Amino acid sequence: MLKIKDLAVNVGAKEILKGLNLNVNAGEIHAIMGPNGAGKSTLSHVLSGKSGYDVTGGSITYNEKDLLEMPAEIRAREGVFLAFQYPVEIAGVTNVYLLKAALNAIRKHKGLSEVDAMDFLTLVKSKTKALDMDEKFLYRAVNEGFSGGEKKRNEILQMAMLEPQLCILDETDSGLDIDALRIVADGVNALRSENRAFIMVTHYQRLLDYIKPDFVHVLADGKIIKSGGAELALELEEKGYGWLEQA
Amino acid sequence: MKTDISWLNTLRQNALTQFEQTRFPSQRLEDWRYTNLSAIEKKQFAFANQVETFDDTHKNHLADFMLNDCYHAIFVDGFFDALLSTLPENITVCSINEAAEHHETVLAPVFNQAIESPHGFTHFTNVHFSDGIFVCINEHSQLDKPLQILHFATQQAMSATRHVVILEENACATLIETFIGVETQTYLTSSVLEIFLNDHANLTLYKVQQDSDKAYHFGGTYVKQADNAHFTHHNFALGGLLARSEIMSHLETGAQCELNGLYLGENRQHLDNLTRIVHAKPDAVSREYYKGILNHRARGVFQGRIVVAKDAQCTDSQMNNRNLLLSSDAEIDTKPQLEIYADDVKCTHGVTVGQLDEKSIFYLQSRGIDEDHAKHILTFAFANEMVDKITVPSLHDCVFTQLLARFPQGAER
Ligand SMILES: Nc1ncnc2c1ncn2[C@@H]1O[C@H](COP(=O)(O)OP(=O)(O)O)[C@@H](O)[C@H]1O
Ligand SMILES: [Mg+2]
Questions:
Q1: CB-based contact, B108 to chain A, within 8 Å
Q2: DSSP label of B187
Q3: Which residue of B has its CA nearest to A91?
Q4: Which residues, 6 or more positions from B50, have their beta carbon under 8 angstroms from its beta carbon?
Q5: Distances from the Cα of B216 to the Cα of B47, B153, B163, B185, B366, angstroms
Q6: Closest Cα to atom 13, ligand 1: which residue?
């Protein structure tokens, strides 16, 4: 589904990603771990099409297409979804309007008609409930005044509504207490399917207790410096990153 | 068809003398420094005539703006149209010409008393007004529905109207001023409204200026608020090529004044807003919140002045002006001013000028919404905060529709 080859990315004159390789197939869950400032969010942003980054080398193909050639909204319509590390607050735009506009934009791209208003409400309410969110959140401005945990849950709600193919979760676990973590993990697990892949960026092993990854990668100094199975995360938890970076 | 009443004739005569000296205000005056009126002089508009009938497109345009849950006072090219109007019964509401004759004892003593700093436009309007509305609501009475004062310009000409509203003690009313004109018609409308609110009276006034994109507009609202009177104003400057709006209020003890405004400029529109709130006595509260969105080569002006007199201890005043510039050629001149002569006061003011937030645009794009749509959503949301304050349902609908026409897909109906 996703092939990242020798990806090099700069912000201004600063090199952040320095030849990163990663292959993700449908049905797989990949965890990306690494120290602060390693470039994890940069990778997430470049995948979702945020401006402000210079791709200086390498390529990204997504479903056999050149992802880097697509504007951000086309990537989203083609099934790429980023759950932000820092979700943006948008005053005056309700959650429910955002969800509907987004869903319709994606449906239109797929050649489908606009979602029926009643069907939409039924759907969004059931997803909201599944994430243990109050329906009132739907009618509040996007993320405005939400607590850290509420924002993260809201990202998962959007993901559940838009049913993307490639889900990138950037530190969705940080700032969540143990109950919220379980709810979010359940939400993610409910979306697992053989057609869908996940890239989970995280600092901590604890999310991986709930969502078991197929692969764990260590991102440090702009590269994947080690890959392994789920057991690698446990090793990292125990030893930290120092032993890898020195190697 | 100007009424021939001696007190009024004297007044018009004085105004004429003054206008001959001042002409339309020049940019040398501090209050007018951002707005050049020379185009109006150059147009050499004639005065509008009273039209007998008008065609269906005009009728439809008018119908689009007539609010269904209101009384109507309709002015066509400045002339009161009794047939199109529906006025409340049991409350003194009539044309100002009629009031000049039949309510002289009430009208004559107050006329011009609320205008604290007269200038060329107020003089001009006093000289030339063809008609206007007079509203006087008795103590403890209220208007059971809002009264919409609708100004419709059809001719390439100028017209002036003059209005007086009096609310006696504990009286209560909602008024809506709507300014519209035939699309693409060039004209000048000048309207001066004086409002007198006695103790504990409560007036909510809406103004929707949706003139043609070639029109010139002056609208001045001058308010005197007696003790504990409440005045709430919602000012929507949407149309016109050059429009100047003035709201000035004078607050006595414990009065409350809330001024909200939204100016939406595009193309070469010039939208000038001047407000002045004078806290003359203690314990009055004022809240002012103006927002502007300027696109293309449009220019906005916000001059908000709060004056706190020496006597006005315990004044509580907040003023805020926020602007969104959608193009690099758009411009805003914003100048909040506080003049404080009392020592025990709580006054704050703030101004922001900015562009749409890149992070927000990207967030929406990352959900599949294209950039233009995202911008419309964000711009609409910025403006809608003011539209949401409208509590008259039909008016809310009307302004919401106007906003949606400017920023299609900005929201769902
Ligand atoms: N917009 C930016 N301008 C300058 N430096 C940036 C910018 N974004 C990220 N960086 C730098 O790039 C490096 C990687 O950042 P980031 O991708 O956020 O790391 P991580 O998510 O792994 O903590 C950091 O050193 C950070 O300071
Ligand atoms: Mg990060």
A1: no
A2: -
A3: B381
A4: B1, B76, B77, B79, B130
A5: 14, 11, 19, 10, 43
A6: A37
Q: How many domains does chain A have?
A: 1
* Residue A48 backbone dihedrals phi, psi, to 5 degrees: -90, -5
Query: How do A29-33 and A197-201 pair as beta strands?
Result: parallel
Interstrand relation of B256-265 and B230-237 (parallel, antiparallel or unpaired): parallel
Q: Which of A71, A91, A162 sits opposite B367 (nearest CB)?
A: A162
**Which residues does residue B323 pair with via DSSP β-bridges, in sequence order?**
B292, B353
* Ligand closest to the CA atom of residue A33: 1
What is the CB-side half-sphere exposure of residue A204 using CA atoms within 13 A?
A: 12
Interface confidence, given as ipTM, is: 0.96
Whole-structure pTM value? 0.94
**Residue among A10, A32, A42, A174 whose CB has most ligand 1 atoms within 8 A, to mutate:** A42
Domains of chain B: which residue ranges? 6-251, 358-413
Separation of alpha carbons B351 and B336, rounded Å: 8
CATH code of residue A187: 3.40.50.300
Q: Can you tell me the distance from the alpha carbon of B156 to that of B159, in angstroms, rounded to the nearest whole number? A: 10
Residues B228-250: pLDDT tens digits? 999 999 999 999 999 999 999 99
Q: CA B41: distance to chain centroid?
A: 22
Nearest residue of B to residue A158 by CA position? B367
Residue B409, helix vs strand vs coil: coil
Residue A244 has pLDDT above 80, yes or no: no
Q: Which of B365, B242, B213 is nearest to A102 (CA)?
A: B365
Dist. CA A128–CA A109, nearest whole Å: 25
Which of B259, B292, B224 lies closest to B34, judged by CA?
B292
